[in-house]
Amino acid sequence: MITHQTSLAGQFLLAMPSIDDDRFARAVILILSHDAEGAMGFIVNRRADDLTLGTIIENLPGEIASTGLVNMPIYIGGPVETNQGFVLHSSAQSGTDAHPLHHLVVSQTLDILLESAQGKGPDFLRLFLGYAGWSAGQLEDELQENVWLVAPADPGLIFAANPDELYERVAHRIGIDLTQLASSGGQA
């Protein structure tokens, strides 16, 4: 059972180099919630090819359509609910349906984008389609199987200009040389 002390909410999961699921190869996942019922997070370093806010929402409100927000890239948050959009942003502005986590907020409404278009929005935001999810005990099993490394999350890295470098940067921050990792753990 997950306790408050063992929850990984607010942490990064870094995919081990030996992961056998291409959807998670070189993934850095921000865990948003983790309890006895399961876990949920976003892959924060996987930009969708050729997708922008303007290409996924046909009828954007005029306040958004007339700004640079239409060119904002979309990120693949994970393989669950890939038709659902999420906005991860700094907590300076938050709607009533937003969920705070270590100064970050997740929202599913256009309100935060409208505020950004008006210059009143958060300092940082990123758009995701889908999320990564685990059923009860599944993430714990994967950790036992040496599928993931756990690292402290850093919002500054999440919103960095080049998400393609995030995998190596997180590994480096925790002192890991990914080329030296074994694909399975031993037993004592």
Task: Please give the structural blueprint.
Blueprint: E1 11-15, E2 28-35, E3 38-43, E4 47-52, H1 53-56, H2 62-65, E5 73-76, E6 80-90, E7 99-101, E8 104-107, H3 111-117, E9 125-135, H4 138-144, E10 148-152, H5 155-158, H6 166-173
Parallel strand pairs: 5-9
Antiparallel strand pairs: 1-2, 1-10, 2-3, 3-9, 4-5, 6-8, 6-9, 7-8
Count of domain modules: 1
Q: Which fold does the CATH topology refer to?
A: VC0467-like
CATH class category name: Alpha Beta
CATH-derived architecture: 3-Layer(aba) Sandwich
Question: Kindly state the mean pLDDT as a whole number?
Answer: 85
What is the distance, rounded to the nearest whole angstrom, between the alpha carbons of the first and last residues?
Answer: 23 Å
Fraction in beta strands:
25-35%
Q: Write down the Rg.
A: 17 Å
Structural class computed from helices and strand pairing:
alpha+beta
The main sheet comes to: 10 strands, mixed
Q: Number of DSSP helices?
A: 6
Order of helices and strands: EEEEHHEEEEHEHEHH
CATH homologous superfamily (4th level) name: VC0467-like
